[in-house]
Amino acid sequence: MTSLKAITFDLDDTLWDNSGVMARTETGHYGWLRENLAAWLAERCWPSWGLGFDQGLEDYLQRRKRLALEVPERRGDFTWLRLRALEAQLETQGLPRSAATLWAAAAMNEFHRLRVQVTPHPEAAELLSDLGQRYRLAAITNGNIHLKRQPLAGYFEVAIAAGELLAPKPDPTAFLTALERFEVAPHNAMHVGDSWEEDIVPALRLGMHAVWISEERHDALPKGVHQIGHVRELRGVLAALKTPY
User: Where are the transmembrane segments (predicted)?
Assistant: First the structure.
């Protein structure tokens, strides 16, 4: 019988389908910024926004990419990259630094409001509720979803945004942080995620069990890796390991 004490979960495309979420969030928060800033500028009789929507959105993206190269330790801290890129764009458009800082922060608040509007898989809440009675549960994500506002937040004792640690997956820091907080050895823990490189590889290197969510079938998997097509199948993995679930 496997002595499993803790399970860590990736979030995006593991506990919910993230397709479309980022596109809606990206255009939504940027559109909110342009609309509200335009009204603010008009009230003050200041020059209007000089960039078209598509041009501005592309400029915003390129600024984030440049920042990630210029400040590599922040490459996984997507909130920081977005905030600084918006501040710089707004200043370039003629806003005073104080106004650029305030408007960028307001736009990022709208970003986080939209970002948490994900729909967990129907089975996710019941699954986490059941597992939480038997195991310590943690969330580990490279995404910049607001961890305390996401809809499944209440099921996780520990939640870690790896980018904010300046150590995005596959760096092992986030995994080690969760294990340390739980005081659990790697061989007594399991990680569940959809990315081979960012979830499964680092978990294996640490000696954790790993469950890879992928609909692409692979017959020759390393020892310690279990493949499922959907998180609902996790109970079957735990049963096969003869660990209580």
Answer: none
